[in-house]
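Dear Dr. H.,

I hope your travels went smoothly. While you were away I took the liberty of generating a structure for the chain from your last submission, since the lab meeting agenda had it listed for discussion. I wanted you to have the full record in hand beforehand rather than looking at slides cold. The sequence, exactly as received, is reproduced here:
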Amino acid sequence: MLQEPDAWSLPDEDYRFSLGIRPGIPRTFFGPSPDRDRLLAERRHWLITDSARYAAILPSADACLAEVETLATEWGFVAGEAGSSASERLLELGQQIEPDLVFLVPDASGLLAVVAGCVCFPSFWRLTDKMGLPLESVHGPVPQLNAFLGSSIHRYLTQMKPGGCWVRTNWGLASRPDLNEHPDRGRHPWKQPLSLDQVWLRREDQAILSLPNSGGVLFGIRLIIRSVAELAQSPETASRLARALRTMPAEMVRYKGLDDIRSELIALLDTRI
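The corresponding predicted structure, in token form, is as follows:
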């Protein structure tokens, strides 16, 4: 599991799009953490009670899935039973590995497209909406992301060294500490008057693993949630979060669901600096 960076990964700069990648170790990222039992129990709950909402696979993912299963056994996990269907094997994998998993393979035009996934802890997006789409379309709803990083993302993913692994960090805010923020569950409203203990920072540590045999890419998302009230006990962290919110473009504020609270949240953070 990744070590928590200083100031909880928030850069001391204005809000901007950045790949921010650094070398990673697959076994470290996808291997067990101290929260393993709790995380896997919740993953099993969602995958058993509503698998169609949280897992999906296309026929073009077969080779990619088989390669990840082989890697998973090297990381200490147990492969699915021989003869099981691809969907059954995907569910078995998703109940053993803590991070969410998204599988990408090149489509007919050479663009990486989503062909499978097991996503139990999404941050306000649906896996089923992304199936079969190239990355440019997947990122389409994120304001200005393709304009700023689309070509860089494509170039980086298509030029990765076979077997290479890189990690990056993304973050957002939510009004409850739930791991699963699937949009079908409904976005929990912000309480008024706002207080810092009603705001939760969702940090996504993301791994990008090149799969040399299948030509695909495994994208892993490990979610960590912390109370902003707790984080803001550090004046440095409070300052960095306030700066990011203050300089975040209006369309991104709306996309992240923060338009009703941004000003109030910045004022609360400023009292901690």
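Two observations you may find useful: Residues 19-164+202-220 form one domain. The chain has twelve helices and seven strands.

With kind regards,
E. W.
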